[in-house]
Amino acid sequence: MGKETQSVVIVGGGVIGLACGYYLAGSGHRVTVIERDSSLLSGSSEGNAGMVVPSHFIPLAAPGVISQGLKWMLDPKSPFFLRPRLDFGLMRWLWLFYRHANTDHVKRSEGLLRDIGLESRRLHQELAESEGFELVQRGLLMLCQSEEGLEEEAEVAQAAQRLGLKATVFTKDRLKDFEPDCSVDALGGVWFEQDCHLNPMDFVTALRKGITARGGVFFEEDVVDFVREKDQVVGVRTSEANEHVADRIVLAGGVISTELARKLDLRLPMQGGKGYSLTLKEPRKALRLCSLLKEGRVAVTPMGKTLRVSGTMEICGTDTSLSPARLQGIIESFCRFYPDFEPDDFSGIDPWVGLRPCSPDGLPYIGTLSRQKRVIVATGHSMMGLSLAPVTGMLCEKLITGESSPINLSALSPERFH
Ligand SMILES: Cc1cc2nc3c(=O)[nH]c(=O)nc-3n(C[C@H](O)[C@H](O)[C@H](O)COP(=O)(O)OP(=O)(O)OC[C@H]3O[C@@H](n4cnc5c(N)ncnc54)[C@H](O)[C@@H]3O)c2cc1C
Q1: DSSP string, 2-53
Q2: Of 149, 137, 62, which Cα lies nearest the Cα of 337?
Q3: CA distances from 132 to 167, 203, 225, 375 (A)
Q4: Would you say residue 61 has pLDDT above 90?
Q5: 54-102+135-195+270-358: which CATH topology?
Q6: Distance linking the first and last C-alpha atoms of the chain
Q7: Is the CB of 356 inside a 6 Å radius of any atom of ligand 1?
C-alpha cells in the first residue's frame, strides 16, 4: 500500500468523515462514504456553533473542570450535567478523565493542540477560497461578567501569548468597538484574533460537493460489522448485508465509533457530550463577532443574517433527548450578556441537538491501528470537530498515502487507552 490510488471506505458522513473523504478524493483515491442517516448526512455537525478555534489549546480534561462540573450538577439550568448510571464504559471514561484533568496533561497537550488548530485554520482559509463558502475572520470574544472569570481568562490569554497565539485582554469600554450595533453586558474579556466562524451547513455542503466532483460516492447504510480475510479487516458489512471491500477503511462514526471499535477488539473510550443550538432567523440586532460567554458556557455565532446560540455539555452516552431546563439556561445566559434580546425571541424555535464525541483526555483519536493496518480511526474531537476537520482530513490522507506527517501523531493514537 504505497502512493498508488487506493479504494477507501469511510464510515460516517459527519464533518470528520467528509473532510477525510474530501482530501482523499482530492489526491485521487476512490472514496466511498457510508452514512446511516441520510436526513443528517453531516451527523452531529451541521447545527454546531461553527467556530474555528486555534484558541482552544486547553483540552477538555483540565484542572478545575471536575470541581466546577460537580457544582453545576446541582443546578438544572447549568451548562453541565452527567446522568449517573451503572455503566462500565462511563465509569472507565470518568476514571481516565480524572487521571488527565491535571496541569501536566495540559502542558503536554497545548503545543500539539495549538499546532493542529493553526494548521486547520490555514486549511479552512484555503477551502473557503477554493470551495466558495464564507469564513469570517474577525476573531472570537471570550466575554466575562465576573471579576473572577476575567482573571481566569486573562491567565488563559497569557498562556496563549506564550504559545505564540494572538490574545488581547480588554475592558468594557472596548465592547462598542467590537459590537457597534448591539449592547453587550460584560466587564470585559479576551479577543482571540485568529479564531474565525462559518456556517457549518455551508461547510459540510462544500465538502460533500467536493467529494462528488472528485468521483466519490455516498451510500445510506448502517455499518454493522467488518469483512475479514483471515484475521485482517478488508471492508465493512452493512445492515442490508452489503459488503464494501476496500484497501483502507476510515472509522469516523463520531461517538458511535466506540461500538464498531469493539468489533476490532479496540477499546476506544468515548462519551457523547450533548449540546443544543437555537437559531434566530431574524435577530433583533446584528452581531459582528462570535463569542463565548464565560459564566454561562454559551456560544454565540452570527451566521449570515441569522444568529445561532448554543451550549451545554451533558455527558450522556448516546442519548439525544432534550432537557427544557437546560435550553432555558442557554437562553437566559445569552439574554444576560446581550440585553437587547429577550427570552421570548426564542419562542417556537426548534432546538437542534448534537453529540460531541468526547475522549477522556480531550484529544482526538487519529491514527492507523497496529493490528489492523487497513483501518484508520478519525474521531473523538469533542468540542473541536468542525475546527479540526480539515487538518484531520489532511492527516488521514497522509496516513493512507504513506507520506510523512507534519504533525507527530503519537499522542493521538487510537490505541492509547488499550
Ligand atoms: C452544541 C454544539 C456546538 C458545537 N460547536 C462547535 C464549534 O463551534 N466548533 C467546533 O469545532 N466543534 C463544535 N462542536 C463539536 C462538533 O460538532 C463535533 O466535534 C463534530 O460534529 C464531530 O464530528 P464527527 O464527524 O466526528 O461526528 P458526527 O458529526 O457525529 O458524525 C458521525 C456520523 O457517523 C455516522 N455513523 C456512526 N456510526 C455509523 C455506522 N455504523 N454506519 C454508518 N454511519 C454511522 C453517524 O450517523 C454520524 O452522522 C459543537 C457540538 C455541539 C453539540
Answers
A1: -SS--EEEEE--SHHHHHHHHHHHHTT-EEEEEES-TTTSSTT-TTS--EE-
A2: 149
A3: 28, 9, 37, 32
A4: no
A5: D-Amino Acid Oxidase; Chain A, domain 2 (3.30.9)
A6: 26
A7: yes
Cβ–ligand 1 contact at 65 (below 6 Å): no
CATH of 7-45+202-268+362-412, one of 3.40.50.720, 2.110.10.10, 3.50.50.60, 3.10.20.30: 3.50.50.60
Atom of ligand 1 nearest to the CA of 221: 43
Ligand 1 pocket member 222 (CB < 6 A):
yes
Q: Grid coordinates representing 155?
A: 491567565
Q: Residue 51, Cα to own-chain centre: how many angstroms?
A: 9
- Count of beta carbons in the 10 Å neighbourhood of residue 413: 17
The CA 345 to ligand 1 mean position distance, Å, reads: 28
Q: Where along the chain do its domains lie?
A: 7-45+202-268+362-412, 54-102+135-195+270-358
The reply to whether ligand 1 has any atom less than 6 angstroms from the CB of 40 is yes
pLDDT single digits (tens) 186-236: 999 999 999 999 999 999 999 999 999 999 999 999 999 999 999 999 999
